[in-house]
Amino acid sequence: MVLQSTGAISFNNIQTEFGGANPIGINEYYLNGTYTTGTGATGIPTSGTISVNNFYGKSKVVGAVVPAAVATSFVGTYANAYMGGVTNYEAITGCSGSNTSRTGVSTFNNIGTLTYLRSNVIYHANLILQARVGDQINIYVNIISKTVSPHIVRIYRNFGTGYVNIYSSGYVTGNGGTYGTSYTIPVGTVAGNYGICCTNEYSTSGQVYRSVNYYSLHIF
Q: Are residues 23 and 123 in the same domain?
C-alpha cells in the first residue's frame, strides 16, 4: 500500500503503513530508521525537522536492499593503541560482529585465528559489519591468557569523528574469556564506511601492554 499523495495524513496512517506501536512518535520514522527503509521511503528526512507531510506517496518496503559491503575508507586510530609490549602472556584471539536486527548483511568472526606473540595492532578492514540506523549489533572480543594479571577489554566505534568507547569490562582476572556488548546504531547516523576498535590491556611487572584489533563498520 502507498500513502495518499494529497489530503490529511494521520499518525495512524503512518503507523499502519510502516509499523510500530503506540504511543506513536514521529521521530521513530526518520528515513533508514527501524521502520522506514528502502526505496519506497526515499525523501523522508534522516534527522531534524520531520512532519506528516513528508510521508505523501511513501510506502513500506519489506527488507531494505543490502548493498555490497564496503571496507572503511578512513584511517582512524584509537589514541593509545600503539602502547606496545609483549603479547606472549595475553592476547586477543579475534572478535565477532553480528546484526540481530536484520539478515542478509555482512558480519565478521575471526575469533580463534590469532594467538600469543601476535602483533600489538592488527587491521582487518576486509572484515565488515553492516547495519542501518536503529539496528542492534553485537560485538564480542575473545582473549587468551597465561597470567592472572588484571586486564580490561574495551570496544570503540568510530563514525568518522574519532573513537568513542561503547563497552568496558572493568578490571577482570582469569585465563581469558569472551567479552562484549550490544549496541544500537543511533538515529541520525549518516550512512558511511566507519570503524570498530577492540582492545585488551593488562599490567604485569609494572608495565602495561595492549593488543588491538580494527574492523570495518558499514552503515548503509
A: no
